[in-house]
Amino acid sequence: IDQAYNSSITADTTESAEEAAQQPPKIRHFFPATGKSRRGAELSLGPVIGPLLHRCPGVYIQGLYCVDGMGNVVFERKLSTAAVRAAEDLVAEFDVSIVGYDGDDLYTTRRTEVVR
């Protein structure tokens, strides 16, 4: 599933996702790659595929957060302290709010009209 290019989900994709989540799986590898956080992908993929994400490996947040079929983090890349500090400086300078991810958790500097 690659929602970066196509946000529609076909019947074949839904069937494949269901087969991948079976124990034992009929499909050996099923990797959702939506560019979103796991929770964001879960909500956007609908009531059939969304709940399956916690039983399948996945690639999230543009490849910065990857989990195996048991939900264990197998790869994670976070910003350096200097990059976070630079983002905080921009927030203060331009009086804006930003959203940051840490795995499945979202954080913001403050809620605004744009960030709810």
Explain what the structure shows.
It is a single chain. The protein is an alpha+beta fold and 116 residues long. Helix content is 31%, strand content 16%. It has helices spanning 11-21, 38-44, 46-49, 81-94; strands at 58-60, 65-67, 73-76, 99-102, 105-108. It is elongated.
Q: Notable features of this structure?
A:
single chain; 116 residues; alpha+beta; three-stranded antiparallel sheet; two-stranded antiparallel ribbon; 16% strand; disordered N terminus
How do the strands of the widest beta sheet line up side by side? 1-2-3
Q: Beta fraction of the residues?
A: 15-25%
| Whole-number mean pLDDT | 80
Order of helices and strands: HHHEEEHEE
The oligomeric state of the chains shown is: single chain
Radius of gyration, Cα only, in angstroms? Answer: 17 Å
Helix content: 25-40%
Poorly predicted sequence stretches spanning 5 or more consecutive residues? 1-6
Structural class: alpha+beta
Task: Tell me the span between the first and last alpha carbons.
Answer: 27 Å
Number of helices: 4
The biggest sheet, with number of strands, parallel, antiparallel or mixed sense and barrel status, is: 3 strands, antiparallel
Strand segment count: 5
Name the overall outline. Answer: elongated
Short description:
This protein is 31% helix and 16% strand.
Write the layout of secondary structure elements.
Blueprint: H1 11-21, H2 38-44, H3 46-49, E1 58-60, E2 65-67, E3 73-76, H4 81-94, E4 99-102, E5 105-108
Antiparallel strand pairs: 1-2, 2-3, 4-5
